[in-house]
Amino acid sequence: MDLGPVREKIDGIDREIIAKLNERFRLASEVARVKHKAGLPIYHPGREEALLRKLAEINPGPLSESGMRAIYREIISAMISLEAPMTIAYLGPEATYTEQAARKNFGTQPNYAPMPTIPDVFAAVEKGEADHGVIPIENSTGGVVSHSIDMLAETDLTIINQVYLSIEHCLISQSPLEEVREVRSKDQALAQCREWLARHLPHAQQVDADSTAQAVKQAGELKGVAAIASELAAEKYEVPILAKGIQDRANNVTRFLVLGREPVGSGTGHDRTSLLLSLNDEPGALEKALKPFSSRGINMTKIESRPSRRKAWDYLFYIDIDGHWSDEIVQAAVGELKACCPLVKWLGSYPVRG
User: Fold this and answer.
1) Are strands 343-351 and 271-278 parallel, antiparallel or unpaired?
2) Is 107:73 a contact under the CB 8 Å cutoff?
3) Using CB atoms within 10 A of its CB, is residue 251 exposed (0-12), middle (13-18) or buried (19+)?
4) What role does this protein play (predicted)?
5) CATH, range 87-140+150-164
6) pLDDT, tens only, 204-246
7) C-alpha count within 13 angstroms, C-beta hemisphere, residue 322
8) I want to staple 196 with a disulfide (CB 3.0 to 4.6 A). Which of 42, 44, 246, 305 is the partner?
9) What are the Cα distances from residue 298, in Å, to 57, 84, 290?
10) Sign of CA dihedral 72, 75, 78, 79
């Protein structure tokens, strides 16, 4: 088959795409100038999600929705970088799952700054050293990341977006499986592979590491030590993979939060709001706190209790509900909530990903 004519058509389409992309960049620059004058943020996750949903509706295929989102994620990333280069702090070191989540949300163009701990991510954004931060908040198998919830209770930062990332764990070591005596990783990763470890390495000691990537670096330096981390981390630190897909649940997903210093945008019609509550020490206190939502048909997608760290046996409740803080029905529920709860803290409202 003579592919010449087909390739000529592709070349012509590529020229059209480049011309249209540059036209789009020029128009985006005009929008950015108006935003700068008005003091509005360039990065607007709600507007981006609304755009991606609209593109999904008009996309006839064969380009998949995930493929379309990936392409436009990079287009938007390049446009934002052109107008307002961003620095994104994340739980490091490099090649962690949190870095993958950050890049999934912001694309390849920002400057990425790995931080040694979750509090360091918060501090970088609070001090203005980074524009936004990305932290893990919960896993579908291992549950919540308690340190992240504790930090949300103390910070003035706002949740402006969320990212879901499918997690595939690998066992990584320079030693063969039969010589592994110790397995290191983040506590969440160890918990997500508990059954696999019990079957294949029942006598190996499990040791918490500050991050999955740090565990890989240690596994590359120490004999008899293995790490649980991503394939990307194994490639970056050049440590062999002994086994892939060792997580106990095939549908293993981690949810990450994107943090900013200020709220961004209004509701999209498909949003989520996070709140932090404290309760009076009295019978039925939790029931009273939940009633403002249930009576209005507001769906609560999550509730998690954490010690307040102010006094013994005092707890805070982290709650996610459907809806945006600015929605009239949410404001009515919060107004009623404030009458029965000593503390009602809005942590942020953000779009639910399509």
Assistant:
1) antiparallel
2) yes
3) exposed
4) Catalyzes the Claisen rearrangement of chorismate to prephenate and the decarboxylation/dehydration of prephenate to phenylpyruvate.
5) 3.40.190.10
6) 999 999 889 999 999 999 999 999 999 999 999 999 999 999 9
7) 10
8) 246
9) 27, 37, 10
10) negative
- The pTM score is 0.87
170-244 under CATH 3.40.190.10, yes or no: yes
Annotated catalytic sites, by residue? Answer: 254, 256
**The CATH number of domain 271-351 is 3.40.50.970:** no
Rounded mean pLDDT of 276-294?
90
Give the model's pLDDT for residue 311.
67
The correct answer on CATH 1.20.59.10 for the domain covering 4-83 is yes
pLDDT in tens, 135-194: 999 988 778 888 899 999 999 999 999 999 999 999 999 999 999 999 999 988 999 999
Spatial contact of 239 and 174, defined as CB atoms under 8 Å apart: yes
H-assigned helices in the chain: 4-38, 45-58, 65-83, 97-106, 118-126, 146-154, 187-192, 194-200, 212-221, 231-237, 285-294, 328-338
Within 8 A by CB and 6+ apart from 218, the residues are: 184, 209, 225, 227
d(CA 353, CA 164): 9
Task: Provide the token pair at 276.
Answer: 């932090």
Q: Which residue in 265, 273, 276 sits closest to 323, CA to CA?
A: 273
